[in-house]
Amino acid sequence: MRSLLRSLLRAHRGLPGEMRKLGDKYVMKEFKDTRDVTKPEHLAAFRGAWEHYLAQLRAPDRGRVGDELSEDTVDKMSDEQRNQLIELRLGAQGKK
């Protein structure tokens, strides 16, 4: 997991200043919050999602970073995850 975190932080170097700060802060918090997770299925899903994000960052034609979340994905989120998503959106828009 450490190598994935380092790869994500390196990939963020190509982002504009504020996006990089926000992204670095968010990634480090998520990885810190996941340190005590022991269920293999949760760790696999966590790792898979971050690897997908890393692939997006590394894509040569990335005019826009990220994907829209499907309704199914949002429905599966906990209230805490939805609140984090709202905070992240507001922070990215400079409204926080």
TrEMBL record:
What are the entry keywords? Chaperone, Mitochondrion, Transit peptide
**Origin superkingdom:** Eukaryota
Q: Where in the cell is it found?
A: Mitochondrion matrix
- Which InterPro entries has this protein been placed in? SDHAF3/Sdh7
Q: Which Pfam families match?
A: Complex1_LYR_2
- Describe the family membership recorded for this protein in Swiss-Prot or TrEMBL: Belongs to the complex I LYR family. SDHAF3 subfamily.
Give the record's subunit note.
Interacts with the iron-sulfur protein subunit within the SDH catalytic dimer.
Q: Please give the function described in this protein's UniProt entry.
A: Plays an essential role in the assembly of succinate dehydrogenase (SDH), an enzyme complex (also referred to as respiratory complex II) that is a component of both the tricarboxylic acid (TCA) cycle and the mitochondrial electron transport chain, and which couples the oxidation of succinate to fumarate with the reduction of ubiquinone (coenzyme Q) to ubiquinol. Promotes maturation of the iron-sulfur protein subunit of the SDH catalytic dimer, protecting it from the deleterious effects of oxidants. May act together with SDHAF1.
In its UniProt entry, what is this protein called?
Answer: Succinate dehydrogenase assembly factor 3
Source organism per entry reads Aureococcus anophagefferens
Q: What is the lineage of its organism?
A: Eukaryota, Sar, Stramenopiles, Ochrophyta, Pelagophyceae
